[in-house]
Amino acid sequence: xxxxxxxxxxxxxxxxxxxxxxxxxxxxxxxxxxxxxxxxxxxxxxxxxxxxxxxxxxxxxxxxxxxxxxxxxxxxxxxxxxxxxxxxxxxxxxxxxxxxxxxxxxxxxxxxxxxxxxxxxxxxxxxxxxxxxxxxxxxxxxxxxxxxxxxxxxxxxxxxxxxxxxxxxxxxxxxxxxxxxxxxxxxxxxxxxxxxxxxxxxxxxxxxxxxxxxxxxxxxxxxxxxxxxxxxxxxxxxxxxxxxxxxxxxx
Length: 251
Fold this sequence. Notes:
InterPro entries: Delta_60_rpt. By secondary structure, the protein is an all-beta fold. It is built from no helices and 15 strands. It is globular and about 55 Å long. It starts with 14 loop residues before the first strand and ends in a 38-residue tail after the last strand.
């Protein structure tokens, strides 16, 4: 309620796990993402849609819901209503299925025109997606644990013209958050020691298409906070029973 009181007209939900992502749709319905074993009394994993009153929407059915130990920590709704989710897909996902980053139709069905297979970028079987941004041209920028960021075309294929490299090993190449500026420049934050071979820690900005611009304070010197390689993140990644992000909480 507007006064902070609990709205009893909204159905209470019960999950055996953690909810980490919400997206309010134009219809008033709500997309809910996270990592859980069941939602209320129904065995559904990672992603559900609720009616405006909080009741589970039975018309939304997605293959990610049957992938045990999966998580959808990021939800992005495209202007055409298609839904991009990022997180982690469980070990039981078939070899030819998309991992970590998938796109579904408004009713939850898998979008077969999108083939973002990221097994080569995997950590313990599946890549861990920390953040997703949609560019105005509908290309997708996912931030991947230990792999920085890549760019996916509208069909899910990698954009070979985008080649930003972060860090030099498994533990210092993680981008946790991405923000797209109105001028097309890309702000990235996370746990990394370099970008495109240039020393920079924690926060950087990429020019179009992917040229490094080190974020500086007004005096022209690197901000003191950038001298420490500490992760800058939007949300914690550790979830009960779900594969933990190794190194994501390094200090």
